[in-house]
Amino acid sequence: MDLTSVKGLTLSNTETIPGRRIVEFFGVVTGNTVRAKHIGRDIMAGLKNVVGGELKGYTELLQESRQEAIERMAEQARSMGANAVVNVRFATSSIAQGASELFAYGTAVRVE
Amino acid sequence: MEMLNLIVQFGLPLVVLVVAYVIGAYLERRHFRSIREREKSLQGFPVTTFAAMPASWRVGTSRLVSGSVVVSLDYFKRVIAGLRAIVGGRIKTYEPLLDRARREAVLRMLEEARGAGFDAVINVRLETSRLANSSGDGNGTAGVEMLAFGTAVTLDRPQ
Amino acid sequence: MKFTPRQPREDVNVSKEHPLVEAGTLIAGLGLILVAILVALVFLVELVLYFVPAEKEAQMFASWSPGDLVSVSYDDERLEQVESLLARLARHWPESQYPLRLEIHDSPAINALALPGGLIVVTRGLLDSVESENELAFVIGHELGHFRNRDHIRGLGRGIAFGILFAAISSTEGSAALGVSLADLTLRGFSRRQEAAADRFGLRIVHREYGHVADAWRFFERIDRSMDEFADMVGYLSTHPSPKNRVRSMIEDAGENGWSISGELTGLEW
Lengths: 112, 159, 270
What we know:
The structure holds three protein chains of three kinds.
Chain A: E1 5-6, E2 9-11, E3 22-36, H1 39-51, H2 56-79, E4 84-96, E5 99-111
Parallel strand pairs in A: 2-4
Antiparallel strand pairs in A: 1-2, 3-5, 4-5
Chain B: H1 2-41, E1 59-71, H2 75-87, E2 89-90, H3 94-115, E3 120-130, E4 144-155
Chain C: E1 2-3, H1 19-51, H2 54-60, H3 79-90, E2 101-105, E3 112-115, E4 119-123, H4 124-129, H5 133-149, H6 151-173, H7 176-210, H8 218-226, H9 231-235, H10 243-257
Parallel strand pairs in C: 2-4
Antiparallel strand pairs in C: 3-4
Helix pairs in contact in C: 1-6, 3-5, 5-7, 6-7, 7-10, 8-10
């Protein structure tokens, strides 16, 4: 997963983009997605849970979701005419049984 | 007697489903309308997720502000979400709920800031948490809380 | 750095698909999968039936008597007569591989059961209510039909398989009661066809024994009269076809085979 640049936008989780100056900012942008794995994966994860270790199905699920959340956030930023999103933060939460929400937000800015 | 049982077993959930869909869809439309209006009235109110400010801003006072909302999915969409969880993939019925809840939380934070005479909110953070229902097994009513918080500032000479 | 107020595009975080469209797709898709699994289970049960022939089943259940299901009334003096009736009727089904046994269940309910291993159970209530031997002969013939078609094992197998399937589905949905009633409804659809087939076999046996089929369905006519007006509606959903429909199709069946529907009735000795 490439976090440095999505849809032509520069992303950063610091207040600035190192080496570049923020010219203007437009406001907060958000991206979110809710996903679930199919029931087979849930059952496999349940079995894997007995012995512990990485739950590959869920690692994948969260990665895919996070990617989509970022893309949606970037889409919002682009619609505002920004070329970068700074101070990006992620929030993951389980909102229902087997379903997790991946949420990304940041400030849409225009850098030099 | 048997007919009555059948009606109770299959008819009643169906009626609840239809009622939940109709009323849920209406409430959702109404909420989105209200959110759009309030967002429009707040346009021009600066919000950022970082602490840096334009050089021209001269901060007077500051204060922590927050806004939160707990929401829950209607029965119809919950059933659809349950079916979707079998197949996997994007649970689309949850998206409008989370979207409007988050915007509502941000709006409440901004309205609090504006109401108290502040000019901007900086360093905004957004949190989501699931409230377990009493049975604790993940079934039944489970609300989601959206929380937005940040630092409200007054500007001596907003640009 | 300066601030330029702008609104992001609104529809980014919300999918455009209408919830009703999603609901339709999901229900149709999952319904298809469910039907496929049900068909596979039915096939599996048939496979088991094929690999466990009747004589093997009879061996397995030779001395089996479901104590929790049947409280046998040994002192009922009618047992001997019913047993001899069964023996007479069984002669008309020489291919039978079951060592047929019969017990009287001490219950006022009107019922008869075909159980694994060739065990027929009739209730005391049934014996009390029948008015001629012909009536009772048809009930026993009907149970023999279940043995011939092996419905007793089929019903058991499907019951277990469907029960587990629907319980598993509904536990993910959080409503076990709905799963149980769905399994029940699905099974009923199957079992009504089996009942009709057993009726035809029973009628044939009765005709061979008495030379006519008079009074064979009198039993159902009596039940029909004692049922309330919902009988017709419930007929679509119950395990057995409604008494009215059964009688109608049996009269048709008799007509097609040219069996006389009137004749001398054989009395009962109690």
